[in-house]
Amino acid sequence: MKSVCLVVQNIYDIDPRVRRKAEALVAAGYVVDVLALRACNGQKRYQLNGVNVRTMSLAKKRGSLARYFFEFATFFLWVLLRVPLQMLRRHYAVVDVNTLPDFLIFAPVVARWMGAKLILDLHEIAPEFYMSKYHCPEHSRTIRLLKFLERVSMTFADQVITINEPIEDLLVSRGLPRSKSTVIMNAVDEARFTARTPSNIQETADRDKFVMMYHGTLTRIYGLDIAIEAFALAHKEMPGAELWILGSGPEKDALAQLARTRGIASKVRLVGQVDSAEIPVWLSQCDAGILPIRCDVFLDFAFPNKLPEFIVMGKAVLVSRLKAIRHHFGEDALAYFDPDNPSDLAQQMVRIFDDSQLRFRLARKASNAYAPIRWDLMKQRYLDLMDNVIGAPERLAVEESPSDPPTVVA
């Protein structure tokens, strides 16, 4: 039975992309280990849905570039030492390294010497990420260094995974051979959503209301202040409309204050953090999704996880007109508005509020456009990549060995 190790400098339980890949491998007959960060009060070792997880205690306190480097270097050293130790028990056929940072691909170098193939899954494009976050000029030394690390990391890996075609094209222009690149998009695992149909759940929303909903982290880049400003402009033309914001983050208090200042606090509902298992229940209660992402050199390539979640739930979506999203969805599939433009967003809010048939048409067109990139196809593409890299695995049921940690069911 083939063994695979996935490496991610994040808390495994809340990283949907890594979880989808790991659980797909388990279902296909692989033994899967994950090296990740430990959640607050989390376990050092545990098993989740057949995936063996080992964690490192390292708090995320990122702010400065120096702090980023410290965290990256610390995790890199832990993986550098941990992977060879685990190779003594399980000889990995593949180590799948998930960024950031790009240079984390060099941490399992000993595994490569022992015969493992290395896959680099580029969750982010690091140069653009730092240009956006720290306002670094493109030709600065920092960005030139990041582009160099990106290039040598892609060269070192046996295969590279990118998250959408516009990013793949960008990386090809920076030296990635297209022959070693595979696009695995951030599609949603539809089984999580179809398992809870509206007939199974207790409806809590007032059907006389028109609910627009956002769910995710409350940070400036996701533009929730733009959504509140737009709603303040439009709410008088939308009787019964409400804006529900699910999630937590550094902008929560500022968003609440903005809603009060604009006189719409009673219509803007800041729900707070919601368990991921309950997201389908909440989405079933909204009339439209809203993703008011700001646009810059990094975010223009964004393809948010939340978009397909709205789509598989059959919801029309108001979304910023961003390059990566427009690559897959036409103007007739999503209610686009100009990024950073509350007035344009307000017009789109009123437009979909007034026309239920438009909402239906948008949802249907979005579903059709999403069909070629849904998770069932992305999952098979990932498994085919594994088979091509290491050969077809033995499709046998995974049995826990006495040395495996106790099972924790999700």
Secondary-structure topology with pairs:
Elements: E1 3-11, H1 16-27, E2 31-37, E3 45-48, E4 51-56, H2 65-87, E5 92-98, H3 109-113, E6 117-121, H4 126-134, H5 141-156, E7 159-162, H6 165-173, E8 181-183, H7 191-194, E9 210-215, H8 224-234, E10 241-246, H9 252-261, E11 268-272, H10 279-283, E12 288-291, H11 306-312, E13 316-320, H12 323-328, E14 335-337, H13 342-354, H14 356-370, H15 375-390, E15 407-408
Parallel strand pairs: 1-2, 1-5, 2-4, 3-15, 5-6, 6-7, 7-8, 9-10, 9-12, 10-11, 12-13, 13-14
Antiparallel strand pairs: 3-4
Structure description:
The protein has two domains: 3-187 and 374-399, Glycogen Phosphorylase B (Rossmann fold, 3-Layer(aba) Sandwich); 191-371, Rossmann fold (3-Layer(aba) Sandwich), CATH 3.40.50.2000. It has a nine-stranded mixed beta sheet, sandwiched between helices. A six-stranded parallel beta sheet has the order 11-10-9-12-13-14, with helices on both faces. The radius of gyration is 22 Å and the shape is globular. The chain has helices spanning 16-27, 65-87, 109-113, 126-134, 141-156, 165-173, 191-194, 224-234, 252-261, 279-283, 306-312, 323-328, 342-354, 356-370, 375-390, and strands at 3-11, 31-37, 45-48, 51-56, 92-98, 117-121, 159-162, 181-183, 210-215, 241-246, 268-272, 288-291, 316-320, 335-337, 407-408. The model is unreliable at 197-205 and 393-410 (pLDDT under 50). The chain contains 15 helices and 15 strands. The chain is α/β, with parallel strands linked by helices. Helix 4 (126-134) packs antiparallel against helix 5 and helix 8 (224-234) packs parallel to helix 9 (252-261).
